[in-house]
Design goal:
This protein is mainly beta and about 350 residues long. It has one helix spanning about 1-30; strands at about 30-35, 40-50, 50-55, 65, 70-85, 90-95, 100-105, 110-115, 120-125, 135-145, 150-160, 165-175, 185-195, 200-210, 215-235, 235-250, 260-275, 280-290, 295-310, 315-325, 335-345. The strands form 2 sheets. A 12-stranded antiparallel barrel has the order 10-11-12-13-14-15-16-17-18-19-20-21. Strands 1, 2, 3, 4, 5, 6, 7, 8 and 9 form a 9-stranded antiparallel β-sheet that branches. Strand 7 (about 100-105) and strand 8 (about 110-115) form a beta hairpin. The N and C termini lie far apart (about 55 Å).
């Protein structure tokens, strides 16, 4: 008798669990997309950034990747973090609008309608920690028979995006060695915190590290605080500027072990161009006119061109350039690195 009761209890529990899981699956797969060619996709919207929409469906092994400009209608019962090209950010669900080419932000006012092309970022608010995480790592190795030249390049990045802020970190390293010369090291790393303000304004705190044998830099720590603005913020490109103050702390490997501590102003321009076939381009230039050291000027420039491969692999070509018009004795005024690496991104 007792065994029969347990069996009935277990059966009821199993049926209840099946209903819960089926219900959860149905709710998770309740987002709908209509493309410009009238194809309809039902699934779970994961995110849209850099002009590419990721959708998970029951019938695919991996997420669908759809170019955002091909979307004609979108609706979803989830709550999303939505960013418009003017910098406005909302937590809202999405539904079809009365006019073609528009979407209704259900939780904004009485249901604000905006152009689909005015939306530049979508992220599920209910997403797990990992789904808000972006990461990549790439490695390159060069070997030349002449002088037995060996060079190892490592590039990595990690970022986390919350509703109104973003945290990014990067680490890059170059190790080069050949017969008849000393081993050359170059390492740079940074952590950047960005808080998104109204009207596409932003506030940043950035801490950077550089060690560079070519310029005899044992270490350079630069902490920057500034405010900026996006001049262009679309599904094709971001273009913006940031300005503020920087505190610079340096130690050099010259004969006297020079130390420098200085206050600098800084201004930067950044262009992020994406969704050009399978290519992404990111370039940034920062100028540091010194406030406490007379006539000193430093400039840092980077350019990265990335080509996307299947399965989230990529090839990246990068240029990094550093300039200082007042280097320590016997050190070079400038240094540059050209890198080609193969990697994978989360």
């Amino acid at each position: 008798m007792r065994s029969s009761s347990l069996e009935r209890f277990n059966l009821k529990g199993l049926v209840f669990l099946v209903f819960v899981l089926v219900g959860y699956s149905v709710m998770a797969q309740n987002d709908t997309l209509v493309l410009k060619n009238n194809n309809r996709i039902v699934g779970e919207i994961k995110s849209m950034q850099n002009g590419v929409l990721a959708v998970e469906t029951d019938y695919s092994d991996s997420d669908f990747k759809i170019t955002w400009i091909e979307v004609a209608e979108v609706s979803g019962n989830q709550v999303f973090l939505v960013t418009l090209k003017n910098g406005e950010r909302y937590n809202t669900s999405l539904s079809s609008a009365s006019a073609k080419g528009k979407v209704k932000l259900t939780n904004v006012g009485n249901g604000r309608e905006v152009s689909i092309q005015d939306i530049v970022f979508i992220k599920s608010v209910k997403s797990s920690f990992l789904s808000r995480l972006d990461a990549s790592v790439s490695v390159g190795f060069n070997l030349t028979k002449s002088n037995n030249l060996r060079q190892l390049n490592v590039r990595s990045s990690m970022g986390y995006t919350a509703n109104y802020w973003q945290l990014l970190g990067n680490y890059n390293s170059v190790r080069s060695k050949q017969d008849g010369s000393n081993e050359i090291h170059r390492t740079d790393a940074n952590i950047k915190f960005t808080y998104f303000l109204k009207n596409d304004m932003l506030a940043i705190f950035n801490s950077e590290f550089l060690a560079n044998d070519e310029q005899k830099i044992d270490y350079r720590f630069t902490n920057r605080v500034g405010f900026g603005n996006y001049f262009i913020h679309t599904n094709y490109l971001y273009f913006g500027a940031v300005a503020g103050l920087a505190l610079n702390n340096e130690r050099f490997s010259d004969d006297v072990g020079t130390n420098r501590n200085s206050l600098e102003a800084f201004g930067s321009l950044e262009l992020n161009l994406f969704d050009v076939k399978d290519f992404d381009l990111l370039t940034n230039i920062i100028a540091y006119p010194s406030i406490t050291e007379k006539n000193r000027l430093r400039v840092d420039y980077t350019l990265d061109l990335k080509y996307d491969l299947p399965l989230d692999f990529f090839i990246k070509f990068g240029v990094t350039y550093n300039f200082d018009n007042q280097p320590v004795q016997d050190a070079s005024k400038d240094d540059y690195v050209l890198q080609a690496t193969f990697g994978w991104e989360l």
